[in-house]
Amino acid sequence: MKILFCSVLFFSFALPSNAETEFPTQRYYESVKVVDLHQVFNMPVGAKGLEFDDKFKQLNNQYVQITGFIVKSDEPVPGKFLLSLRPIQLNEHADGEANDLPPSTVHVFLDPTESDSLIPYKAGLQTFRGVLNLGRFEGTDQSISWIRLQLPPIKN
Fold first, then answer.
1. Fewer Cβ atoms within 10 A, N terminus or C terminus of the chain?
2. Is the separation of the CB atoms in 128 and 106 below 8 Å?
């Protein structure tokens, strides 16, 4: 019981005060919801453009599991990386803002206590669990994301 209380206490203070999400209690970790990046948007695309699927929207602020490919980057950024439904390599130096990222690309953020860490590129499908956040968000680097996954602290 003491360990569970400490875990809940740690998670409630591990995120910055301006964070939109909090990590769930232990019971949510046992029933993780699986996200299929192929079923993020309503199909076919309507007159309003891309719209999140209703089932996907219900996963907002939920603890989820997402499987995808880490986007290989020439200039990795500490504390975050991109996850895509297909293998992609970005060449930021040559392409600048122009990239071939699909709209369902997930911006994955490490826990703020690990924001100086780099996630090494690893080929093949990778699975991550964290809290899903949906909606337009402009990062400090002026990047725009619509789908974000906040990872919990890495346990040693």
1. C
2. no
Q: What angle do CA 127, 133, 137 make, to 5 degrees?
A: 120
> 3-state SS of the chain: helix, strand, coil percent to 5?
20, 30, 50
Q: Specify which residues 67 forms β-bridges with.
A: 127
pTM of structure: 0.76
120 Cβ neighbours under 8 A, 6+ residues apart: none
For 25-53, what is each residue's pLDDT tens digit?
444 456 789 999 889 998 888 888 889 99
Q: Residue for token digits 């910055």?
A: 16
CA distance 135 to 49: 15
At 109-121, the pLDDT tens digits run 999 999 899 888 9
Instruction: Confirm if 50 and 43 have CB atoms less than 8 A apart.
Output: no
Distance between first and last Cα of the chain: 21
Report residue 105: phi and psi, to 5°. -60, 135
Domain 2-150: state its class: mainly beta
96/55 Cα distance (integer angstroms)? 34
